[in-house]
Amino acid sequence: MEVNHLSEGIRVAILGATGAVGTELIQLLEERAFPVSQLKLLASPRSAGKTISFRGEALTIEAVSAEAFQDVDLVLASAGGSTSKAWAQTIVDAGAVLVDNSSAFRMDETVPLIVPEINPQAAAQHQGIIANPNCTTILMGLAIFPLHQIQPIQRLIVATYQSASGAGAQAMAEVKAQARAILNEETPPTDAFPYPLAFNVFPHNSPLTEQGYCQEEMKMVKETRKIFDAPELRISATCIRVPVLRAHSEAINLEFAEPFPVGKAKEVLSQAPGVEVREDWENNYFPMPNEATGKDEVFVGRIRQDISHPCGLELWLSGDQIRKGAALNAVQIAELLVKDQLLPTTEKAVSV
C-alpha cells in the first residue's frame, strides 16, 4: 500500500550548518527531540567534508547544490540573504518548505513572517517559504504582544543593546581579540565590525535610510507591524552595538489609549508563553544578558509606569539572540508545521 514517509520522520536540511545559528539549530533539533529521520548539513565548499555530531553520530557536511535538496521535506536556512535568494526556488521546486532566517523574504507579502507565540495561524498561508523575523523583533514581540492583546499599543519607542552574536561567530571572536589587543595596548582588529566594539558602543552599522534610520531599526518597525497585523502602529527604534558576547537587551516604552496598570502588566507577562519576569526591586536586580545566554525564555523586568505619560509603560528585557532570536524560533516554526500538518504529504509518498 502507499503511505507517506512523514509518519517515519522529517527529512531536514540545514543550510549554513557551520555558522553560529546553524550550530544552534543542530543542537536544538536534538534537544527538543524534533522528529528527524534524515539530516543533511549544507555549507560552502570550504566546509565540505568536515563532520558535526548529531544524536551521537558524526554527520559529514556537504557543499550546497541543487541535488542536495532532493528528498528533503524541510530546509532551515541561516546562510545569509543572498544565499537564501539563490536557492529558494530550487528548494520549493524540490517540494520542500524553506524556513529562512535571513531578511530576504520577510517583507514579501506572499511569505508569512512568524513568531509561533504570536501569529501561528499565518503558517497555514505559506507557499513553500516562511520567514524568521529579525532577532530584535522576535525578542520585543514576545514581551509586548501579550500586552497589545489586552490593550492595543498606540506607539512604541525602543532602544536596543545588541551583542556581537548578532553579527555571527566571527564577530564574537573578534570582540575577544579586540579586548586582548586593547589590554595589551595594541591596535584592535576590525574585520567583522567597522569600529572596535570591545570597551565601546556605537549605533548599529547597517546601512542608513533617507529617514536617518538604519536598516536594523526599520526591520523592527516593518516586521513588528506585519507580525502584529497592525500596519499603522507607530514605532521608533534606535539600535546600538554593545560589547556583550551573546544575548541582546532592549529598553521599551509603550503608549496605550488608556492607562495600563503596572500590576496588570506584570500579571499578564508572568503568564505569557516564552517570557519570564525577573525583578527584584529591593536589590535593583533585573534581566541581564549574561543570565539570558543559553536560555529559551525572554527575561522581562523593570516594568514601571512612565512618569512622563499617564498611559505609558516602560520595560526592560534580555534574550538570547542566537536561540529565541534565531534558531529556536525557526525550530518552533518547524514544530508548528509538523503539528498542523503543513509540510508536503503527497508529492513524496513512498510505497511499502
From TrEMBL:
HAMAP family: ASADH. GO terms for biological process: 'de novo' L-methionine biosynthetic process; diaminopimelate biosynthetic process; isoleucine biosynthetic process; lysine biosynthetic process via diaminopimelate; threonine biosynthetic process. Keywords: Amino-acid biosynthesis, Diaminopimelate biosynthesis, Lysine biosynthesis, Methionine biosynthesis, NADP, Oxidoreductase, Threonine biosynthesis. Transmembrane segments: none annotated. This is Aspartate-semialdehyde dehydrogenase. It comes from Euhalothece natronophila Z-M001. Residues 11-126 form the Semialdehyde dehydrogenase NAD-binding domain. Phosphate binds at residue 106. GO terms for molecular function: aspartate-semialdehyde dehydrogenase activity; NAD binding; NADP binding; protein dimerization activity. Homodimer. Substrate binds at residues 162, 241. It holds the Pfam family Semialdhyde_dhC.
